[in-house]
Records
---
Amino acid sequence: MPPIRVQLGAMPAMLADLVVQLLGEHWAVEIAGKAQPGEDALEQARAANADLLVVLDDPHAGGCLAAVLAQPRLSILALSNGGERGELVRLEREAVALDRRLATAVVGVG
């Protein structure tokens, strides 16, 4: 099974290590990158083809990621240039514990 590629946002190293360790108990984890404060972690995740983006929930952060995190539920309808089709992306917050159950919640393994 291929590893799950994780992009880390700007956060304390100890917290990042904890998340990677918990995911690594059930899944091969590859760090796609780590954003520095002020960098766009969402853009970095896209560029690195990451499967999972891990960020701090910072209400004062700016940019697109902050706008997404500010909404408890958000759906995005991405239309083709010609308008003949679209794709719906649903984003919804779900509380997860930072414990051994994290891997199951994130990647559906048990």
---
Amino acid sequence: MPRENGREMNSPSNYKTNDNIQGKLTAGENRQTVMQPSARKRIHDPLPQSTDRSEKWNRIRKVQKTSSNTFTRTEDVSVKPEDLSAFIPIKPVEVLDDESLLRDEIRGWIKEYLCMHPRRDFRVFAGLDTRNTPDYIKPFQVELAQGFENARDMFSRMKNQCQNLSTKEAISRTNEGRYLIQMFELEKAPNQEQILKEINTRLHSIAENGEQLLQQTVEIGFENVWIASKELIWDQESKSYVTQLINSDMPNAFVKTVDPQCRIVFLADTFHFDPHVRPGEELKTPVAEAIIHETTHLSSGTVDLLFYSKPPSGYALSGKDLLNDRHTEFHKIAGSLSFKDFVNRLAQQQNLPQLSNKAVKDALSSDHMLRANLLIEDAELVMTIIRDLSQGRAIDERPRVRRTQEQDITKTERKVEGKLPDIKNETEKMRLSDAIVIGKERSQSASGTKPNQSLERIQNVDSHR
């Protein structure tokens, strides 16, 4: 949860699942099992039913079943980590095959975030098909559809850039290399080129994994994309829908990394704050950024090392902003559960069962490879690198954040934002365009702290943005 954003209409019992998405699956796809909540819960459960596609997701994510790690660590401050010559492996992806438990946790988080308003009702919508959703959700579904296209394009561009960089004799002499040297503070690193190669290899893996996960999301009709929302109110002045919530300090999306269905839950209210709630600060995160951030959690095991500050109104944070926040708040990184998990994996990799958190923290200032390895596991930092390098942006350049009335991207603007991928499959074209076309038609007429984690079986696997 690196940057919290200040992100029920009808009774949950009136919720109707969107059956249309099933009719849009590719021809010949095998019928999947629909996981039903218990009869007692079905009446009151606001969550959509989920089709079990765990086999596909597990294959894409190279999943391991959740198992207890027998490695234990007893800290001794005198034990120092060995200097790294390469990055340690990412944490293996594990899943929890307990749908009821996962739904309880997802439901609990949504309630925690959205029920701060006196009206405690909310609804959860699956997918981006706008034909069966209320008018206040349709424009956001259209925005999400565009965001998924942009996010997938950025992953694709980043993957290609990394492939190109791997052929360079000196990455440090490229524009991408100069950006990475600043982001990871490698100006004085004696093994600068070696570290850049490790960073490039990891970025290539992250981009490739992210692209594959988003491709699968498209192929199943976005049914793993959930939108949780209270009833948004039409604001005549801004000609857009706004939330009734005023607390802007909450994540705008979250995932459960142990979820075998790879659900990404967007809290629609966080994308619809009245800007007057926090004058001078940008409360809306660009949708594509949120998608990339959450996707890397699911596909590459990234974590949330730090809460980042909010950018000034009209802008997103630059790479330099993240760097400044890191200098100011580094002590919070060293005290996080994610840092402890990193030390556990480092200790296991180096067979140092007495390695201490303090020894690793102290080593970060001198071991540039170790520091880069830790930082590249941060989802917000990875998202920012992918966004900036795929769009040719300098580290100190803040991207503009468009207002609602600016959502239609012109051809000229697309040259800056990145050309959308060439979609050759007709079925895929229909899925991606359906929400946009139908959403525009329908929306024109309308114009007018984390929750308490009580489930001990799921620890240190929860990712919010």
---
Amino acid sequence: MQKTKVNELENVLLDQIEKLNDDSIFEDETKAKILIERSNSIADLANAFTGLTRTKLDVVREMKSNGGMYEKYMGIEE
């Protein structure tokens, strides 16, 4: 399921790049500003998503290195 979200994000980013590469959009200054602002917002969200995904991966790696024990990971071993 995670792979699907990554693929969707990739498609959105590639779509935005295509739109920004279309010179005709810059004929209308208002549309150009909106597209640039939207692209900046999408880039910010993509960075946040990537950071969250990296954090999840780090947690899984850490849990695996500790034997996958929830208690050990949380530091509440007996």
---
Amino acid sequence: MLLEERHVHADAFWQRLQRRLTFLAAYANRSSGAPELDNRR
């Protein structure tokens, strides 16, 4: 698998993970260290 394909795969996984309510609930305190999670509204 080429590096670009891996990036696309990892990005798609990250996007799906951010939509899971259980994943978001685990980081609801806004101190996860991941700006994508900490800056959600």
